[in-house]
Amino acid sequence: GEDVEQSLFLSVREGDSSVINCTYTDSSSTYLYWYKQEPGAGLQLLTYIFSNMDMKQDQRLTVLLNKKDKHLSLRIADTQTGDSAIYFCAESIDDYKLSFGAGTTVTVRA
Amino acid sequence: DTGVSQDPRHKITKRGQNVTFRCDPISEHNRLYWYRQTLGQGPEFLTYFQNEAQLEKSRLLSDRFSAERPKGSFSTLEIQRTEQGDSAMYLCASSLQRDTGAFFGQGTRLTVV
Asked: What is the pLDDT confidence band of residue A30, given thresholds at 50, 70 and 90?
C-alpha cells in the first residue's frame, strides 16, 4: 500500500462536506476506486472512476481525478453520522489487483 | 444475500496449527482475490484466480500458504503451521472484469495465540 498515500484522519461536522484526498503512483492505472470500511466489516465499494475522466458524481459522492498530479479526491456532501468509517483509495495494478492506501478515518461530530 | 460470503468470520488457533478459510464469490464472477489486512493498514494483495487458474501469488504468500479454486467457484485459503505474525483479517473479493470493481466479503479474522 505504500504506493498510495492518504491522510490518516478527518473530523467533520454533521451536515458539512468531507473531502478525502489521495495520491497514487502508477500512471498506467486504468481505474481508481474508493472503498468504505466500518468497524469489524469488509470493504464496501463506494465508487470508481476511469482514468480518462476528470470527475464523477454519484448522489452525495463526487470524485475528482487529476491525472497529471496523480491526485484523487472524494467529496461527501451533507456528511451524516453514518458516514463515519475508514475510507480507502485504491488503484488498479496490471488491470486486476488493487493497491490500497492506509485509509482515512472519518469522524463525524454532531 | 448474493454477496461474497466468507467462513468462518472469526478463528482463534494455537501457533503451529493449520487453518482453512472458505470464500464463496458472487456467482457470476469469474475473478477471485484474496487480500490480507492488518490493523491500521489497507488490504494487501495475496493471490488472484481467473476461473480455476491461479494467475498470481504475491511474495507475501509464503510456502505455508496455499489457495485453491477447484471448480472455478468457491475458493479455500489454507495456512499451515500458523505463526503469530499470521494474525490478520483475510479478505476475499470477486469481480467480473476490472471496470466493475471488486466486491469484498466480510472477512475472516484470524488470531494466532
From this structure: confident
Helices vs strands, H then E, count in chain B:
0, 11
- Residue reference for cell 488457533: B13
Contact (CB<8Å) B104/A30: no
Give chain B's length.
113
Q: Which of residues 22-61 of A touch B (CB under 8 A)?
A: 30-31, 33, 35, 40-45, 48, 50
Pairing of strands A9-13, A43-50: unpaired
C-alpha cell at A1: 500500500
Q: Evaluate if residue B97 carries a pLDDT over 80.
A: no
Sequence-distant (≥ 6) Cβ neighbours of residue A77 within 8 angstroms: A17, A60, A61, A62
